[in-house]
């Protein structure tokens, strides 16, 4: 049975990084659209699979996995021999990968989310954006990016000189910050700008932006 990805078709959030991983690894899948406007993600059927009432989750022939980063890790290991090596196997390179992945979830992601929630979250709910708070969150994010700029001045990608899943993790939500007019990622240092440009010009990401998350031909 073909792998099923349950989620939305917009490339911005967790769904997007799973879609990038699927494209990079050339894994066939079917997108099962979850109608979030209709609160389908809060139905008992969805909660039985994703108990936090979120998307995405995958159904791999009856095996359910949720949390986008966990899904990516599972698929990267299951299809280790297919497409690019996204999780290194060498002990020390793997430690660098784990370090970069932890930095993403501990430093990058919370800083990105504060900006996104203040700007886009409030705008979507029809609330007034607190411009002073927003400027503070952008500054916090910029401070993180300055550290990234130092790291990326010594190596090509976040885990070393090879592209890994840790780079893909950074494509969750930051593109929405940029598309909301806050282009902090290309203005916080030349190395971050160079790395970010590489990520967003990868064919997997370009196609996803153009077409949204789409089932692949089975
Ligand atoms: N940590 C989760 C976050 C998932 C998440 O926040 N999904 C959003 C859409 S991108 C969602 O389902 N939001 C609805 C909600 O939280 O009620 C993951 O990476 O899978």
Automatic annotation (TrEMBL):
Annotated keywords: Transferase
Return the protein name: glutathione transferase
Give GO BP annotations, semicolon-separated. glutathione metabolic process
Reaction catalysed by this enzyme: RX + glutathione = an S-substituted glutathione + a halide anion + H(+)
> Sorted alphabetically, which Gene3D superfamilies does this protein's record hold?
1.20.1050.10, Glutaredoxin
GO MF annotation: an example: glutathione transferase activity
Group of enzyme by EC? transferase
Pfam families listed in its UniProt record: GST_C, GST_N
> What are the top taxonomic ranks of the organism?
Eukaryota, Fungi, Dikarya, Basidiomycota, Agaricomycotina
């Amino acid at each position: 049975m073909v792998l099923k990805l349950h989620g939305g078709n917009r490339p911005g959030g967790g769904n997007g990084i799973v879609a990038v991983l699927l494209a990079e690894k050339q894994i066939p899948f079917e997108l099962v659209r979850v109608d979030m406007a209709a609160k389908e993600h809060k139905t008992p059927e969805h909660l039985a699979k994703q108990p936090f009432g979120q998307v995405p989750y995958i159904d791999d022939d009856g095996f359910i996995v949720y949390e986008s980063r966990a899904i990516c890790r599972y698929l990267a290991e299951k299809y280790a021999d297919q497409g690019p090596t996204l999780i290194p196997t060498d002990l020390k390179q793997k430690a660098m990968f784990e370090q970069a992945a932890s930095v993403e979830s501990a430093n990058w992601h919370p800083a990105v989310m504060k900006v996104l929630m203040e700007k886009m979250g409030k705008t979507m709910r029809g609330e007034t954006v607190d411009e002073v708070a927003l400027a503070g969150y952008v500054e916090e994010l910029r401070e993180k990016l300055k550290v990234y700029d130092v790291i990326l001045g010594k190596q090509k990608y976040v885990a070393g000189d090879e592209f890994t899943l840790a780079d893909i993790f950074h494509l969750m939500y930051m593109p929405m910050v940029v598309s909301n007019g806050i282009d902090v990622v290309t203005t916080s240092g030349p190395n971050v700008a160079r790395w970010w440009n590489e990520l967003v010009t990868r064919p997997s990401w370009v196609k996803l932006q153009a077409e949204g998350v789409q089932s692949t031909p089975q």
